[in-house]
């Protein structure tokens, strides 16, 4: 590398960015006085050493830091006057993370290669025109003064657009914070091919256009909102394909809008249209009603008409108003209130929450009321309310995209959401949707804020007045590494575009702080949980559109490589998605708290050991245990929320309790109740527990305990040889958390040497498209209700318990004559990485001991699951113990494909079918077991129609048992499940 040519003008340019004035003068003096031989020799010697070492030579952290860029020394200046060595390194050094305690390590590393005469002198180290200590984020500064120029400006005070009325206070979370984010690319119209297509290739059953959605939608957004933040997504966040709009201009179906009284005027507002052509802005096509506050509440009412029951995201829109109004949502679970500040967020869709609504139109059970506060002299606004994400309706060259809006790129959702075209999403006159899509995301952030942070073409655009705290772009980087190496996590930010400060004077190096905090948290948490030496790549200061366009601290995350199989092992695992999402949430929490000088608390983890038990004929006791977070000591629960559901309706708003149990009375006979619990603290609310179900039968024949042993979430099977490798979904497609939204289809190209030609023929890892956009069920932790319905239909009362509560003796099996063991797709699982601890075992020692003691006391067992035979341990003593206990033994896995089975007993004459399809209602069963009787005391009672293999076994000795090689809850049709349960109950109770 050539010697850095520091002319006077070049030095001046550097000094304007970061050089202290005094240091600038010394720097110039030393540069002039130092001999060329001193500079040249020292620089040559240091760079020679650097070439022989990795770029992590300077980095003292424990992470596996790898960056493709090599660290090199541009300039070395020695001052004999001050006995100080000034070293100016290239940009690669600035891409490493530094802390106060690592500065001395860097200095020591350099001194190792210095001549003896220079080893004891002080060093001043620069990288990318910053002193090394200036690269330390404010959050990690203790002795070094905080850079106040990076802190949040007082012009962006935290305040909520939407505030959900909760029964607890979030005092040390993200209440008042506003976060803008987006989940990578999406479905878009490609002009050159005249077709709608993805922006990336289908690889390893996944796709970058939708894979980040499996982090953002089920995990990151709920975590942030549970901490009190308002989250804005550039893409549609609700995958519900049905859309219901209630509006003063035009509503869908038989939906009805009731206007408020004392209306004053109209402004531009939303108008519904099935298809939107050209650059039409739907928020400029209709009207919004303005109305005055009164001595009594002034109310506008929106009554939707639903074509199908289901969960729907609820969005509201309005023109600018004078303050906060209440939006009261009546849904199947009850009534939930939101305060919405109409001084912000006007002229677009503002998301409230997602609720379960029943089919049809019922003003008593499904509506939204806009309630203006009492008092006179203020003006408020009523525009449209929308339920559900709906189908994409932006027309390109005569046709819409054909997919739900959830899968489309940001450019189309922003058009539907009222963003101005020439400033935000139509930057190429309708000729290049690809560029418009990635450029629009940052411009949308600026539009949300408005002057002086407005879009690039007009910073003084009024915008929506929302004080955004940070922006976050989620991607999975491309790249392949040999020898089973992990590509790992890259962070990108930008400081050099146009100016080094945001419009309010905040230093853009706040973006580097944000990037460092999130990247550090991700790598640290992955390594702690998965013990895999996860790769930490650099922090690039680069002019990527998504990094430099937002006028707020912004991070572009490249979490891993969707093209690299070693990374794919992780990205397809739902537990990994949860852990990474929690790390991202924690990084954002720490950044926003540090920016505002506030303390923080991390929201708790979900509770476990959840169980229900009857205390009398109409009272049920619920109990649970908190879960400690080994990675975060602040995440301790303080209180708990107990949510209740009746029948097929949604959950209510919860009851706050201080203890780890609650007794609930007035359980009505003939109804099924569902309960779930969350833990809360000053930082927010945890994710929910599994759901336990309870039902009391009229003239009950007895009480049954349902034990929920189906806890598993897991990625699909992956195989590897020297020449072939990939994802074997046919062997095991894994179990999604809640719902799978990111599978494209099975992989068909397993040749490691297959080369990429284009995105339609991507070579190694290429996958089908038959499942993409098919959102299907995984583990919703709510299957005890399905078993309970059939028990109740047959006259039996029931309660349910987690398997952990049974194993720990918290649930007493001896209180019940029959135990229904629900094991779904539970089987022993190992996390990717080097963690050797097995998860989700069926036949734990504690469970077998509990069941053995139970049957000795005369208890009977009904057990079902896809792996109840295959999971029986091979070790002889344990194998015989379990087979003797259940009266069945394993014969084969993947017993059938079509799911049909029949009763061997001609008197029962039952035929049924369990689900093997990818649908919302039931998870698909890809690997049912063939099981046979263990000895002469058992007999086959069901066989698979496809091949006659035994599908179920009845066993009778001192007690009775029925074991099915497929999950009971996967049987199609409520009527069939009821009949099947009747036959099983008769066998066990004869």
From TrEMBL:
What InterPro entries does the record point to? CBD-like_Golvesin-Xly, FN3_dom, FN3_sf, Ig-like_fold
Write down the SMART domains for this protein, in alphabetical order: FN3
Transmembrane region(s): none
Q: Domain Fibronectin type-III, which positions? A: 606-699
- Which protein are we looking at? Fibronectin type-III domain-containing protein
Record organism: Draconibacterium halophilum
């Amino acid at each position: 590398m050539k010697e850095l040519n520091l002319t006077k003008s070049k030095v001046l340019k550097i000094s304007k960015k970061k050089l202290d004035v005094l240091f600038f003068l010394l720097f110039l003096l030393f540069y002039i006085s130092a001999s060329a031989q001193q500079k040249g020799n020292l620089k040559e010697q240091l760079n020679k050493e650097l070439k022989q070492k990795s770029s992590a030579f300077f980095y003292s952290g424990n992470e596996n830091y790898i960056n493709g860029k090599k660290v090199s020394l541009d300039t070395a200046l020695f001052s004999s006057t001050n006995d100080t060595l000034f070293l100016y390194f290239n940009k690669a050094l600035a891409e490493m993370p530094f802390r106060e305690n690592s500065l001395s390590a860097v200095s020591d590393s350099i001194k190792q290669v210095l001549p003896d005469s220079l080893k004891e002198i002080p060093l001043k180290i620069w990288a990318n025109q910053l002193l090394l200590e200036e690269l330390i984020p404010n959050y990690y500064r203790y002795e070094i003064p905080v850079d106040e120029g990076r802190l949040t400006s007082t012009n962006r005070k935290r305040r909520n657009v939407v505030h959900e009325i909760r029964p607890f206070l979030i005092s040390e979370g993200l209440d008042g914070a506003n976060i803008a984010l987006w989940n990578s690319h999406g479905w878009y119209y490609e002009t050159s091919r005249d077709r709608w297509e993805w922006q990336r290739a289908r690889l390893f059953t996944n796709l970058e256009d939708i894979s980040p959605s499996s982090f953002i939608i089920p995990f990151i957004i709920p975590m942030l909102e549970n901490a009190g933040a308002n989250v804005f997504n550039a893409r549609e966040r609700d995958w519900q394909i049905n859309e219901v709009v209630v509006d003063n201009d035009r509503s869908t179906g038989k939906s009805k809008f009731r206007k408020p009284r004392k209306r004053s005027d109209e402004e531009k507002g939303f108008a519904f249209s099935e298809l939107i052509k050209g650059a039409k802005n739907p928020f400029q096509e209709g009207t919004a009603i303005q109305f005055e506050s009164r001595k009594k509440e002034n109310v506008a009412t929106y009554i939707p008409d639903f074509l199908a029951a289901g969960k729907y995201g609820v969005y509201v829109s309005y023109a600018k108003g004078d303050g906060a109004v209440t939006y009261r949502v009546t849904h199947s679970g009850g009534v939930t209130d939101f305060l919405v500040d109409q001084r912000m967020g006007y002229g677009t869709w503002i998301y409230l929450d997602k609720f379960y609504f029943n089919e049809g139109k019922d003003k008593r059970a499904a509506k939204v009321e806009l309630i203006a506060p009492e008092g006179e002299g203020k003006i408020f606004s009523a525009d449209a309310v929308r339920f559900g994400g709906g189908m994409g309706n932006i027309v390109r060259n005569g046709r819409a995209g054909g997919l739900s809006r959830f899968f489309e790129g940001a450019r189309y959702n922003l058009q539907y959401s009222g963003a101005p075209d020439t400033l935000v999403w139509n930057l190429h006159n309708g000729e290049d949707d690809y560029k418009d899509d990635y450029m629009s995301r940052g411009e949308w952030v600026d539009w949300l804020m408005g002057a002086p942070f407005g879009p690039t073409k007009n910073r003084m655009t009024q915008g929506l007045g929302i004080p955004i705290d940070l922006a976050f772009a989620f991607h999975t980087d491309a790249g392949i590494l040999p020898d089973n190496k992990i590509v790992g996590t890259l962070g990108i930010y930008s400081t050099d575009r146009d100016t080094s400060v945001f419009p309010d004077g905040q230093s853009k190096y706040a973006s580097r702080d944000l990037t460092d905090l999130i990247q550090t948290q991700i790598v640290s948490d992955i390594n702690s949980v998965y013990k895999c030496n996860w790769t930490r790549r650099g922090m690039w200061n680069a002019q990527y559109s998504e990094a430099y366009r937002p006028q707020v601290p912004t991070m572009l995350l490249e979490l891993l490589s969707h093209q690299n199989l070693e990374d794919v092992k992780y990205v397809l695992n739902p537990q990994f998605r949860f852990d990474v999402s929690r790390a991202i949430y924690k990084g954002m929490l720490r950044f926003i708290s540090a920016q505002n000088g506030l303390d923080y608390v991390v929201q708790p983890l979900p509770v476990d050991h959840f169980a229900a038990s009857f205390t009398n004929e109409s009272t049920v006791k619920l109990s649970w245990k908190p879960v400690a977070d080994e990675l975060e000591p602040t995440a301790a629960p303080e209180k708990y929320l107990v949510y209740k559901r009746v029948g097929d309706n949604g959950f209510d708003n919860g009851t706050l309790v201080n203890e780890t149990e609650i007794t609930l009375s007035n359980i009505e006979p003939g109804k099924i109740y569902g309960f779930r619990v969350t833990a809360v603290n000053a930082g927010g609310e945890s994710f929910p527990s599994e759901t336990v179900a309870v039902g009391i039968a009229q003239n009950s024949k007895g009480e049954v305990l349902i034990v929920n042993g189906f806890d598993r979430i897991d990625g699909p099977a992956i195989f590897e040889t020297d020449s072939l490798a990939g994802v074997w979904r046919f062997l095991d497609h894994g179990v999604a958390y809640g719902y799978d939204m990111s599978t494209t289809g099975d992989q068909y190209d397993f040749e490691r040497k297959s080369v990429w030609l284009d995105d339609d023929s991507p070579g190694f890892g290429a996958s089908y498209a038959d499942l993409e956009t098919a959102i299907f069920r995984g583990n919703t932790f709510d299957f005890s209700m399905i078993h309970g319905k059939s028990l109740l239909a047959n006259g039996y009362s029931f309660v349910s318990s987690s398997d952990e509560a049974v194993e720990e003796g918290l649930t007493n099996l001896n209180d019940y004559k029959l135990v229904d063991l629900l094991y779904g797709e539970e089987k022993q699982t190992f996390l990717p990485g080097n963690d050797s601890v097995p998860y989700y075992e069926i036949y734990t020692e504690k469970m077998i001991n509990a069941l053995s003691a139970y049957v000795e006391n005369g208890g009977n067992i009904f057990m079902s699951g896809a792996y109840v035979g295959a999971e029986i341990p091979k070790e002889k003593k344990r194998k015989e113990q379990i087979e003797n206990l259940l009266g069945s033994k394993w014969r084969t896995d993947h017993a059938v494909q079509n799911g049909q089975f029949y009763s061997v007993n001609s008197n029962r004459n039952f035929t049924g079918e369990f689900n093997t399809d990818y649908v919302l209602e039931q998870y698909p069963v890809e690997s049912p077991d063939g099981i046979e009787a263990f000895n002469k005391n058992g007999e086959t009672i069901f066989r698979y129609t496809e091949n006659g293999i035994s599908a179920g076994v009845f066993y009778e000795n001192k007690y009775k048992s029925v074991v099915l090689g497929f999950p009971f809850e996967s049987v199609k049709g409520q009527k069939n499940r009821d009949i099947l349960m009747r036959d099983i109950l008769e066998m066990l109770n004869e």
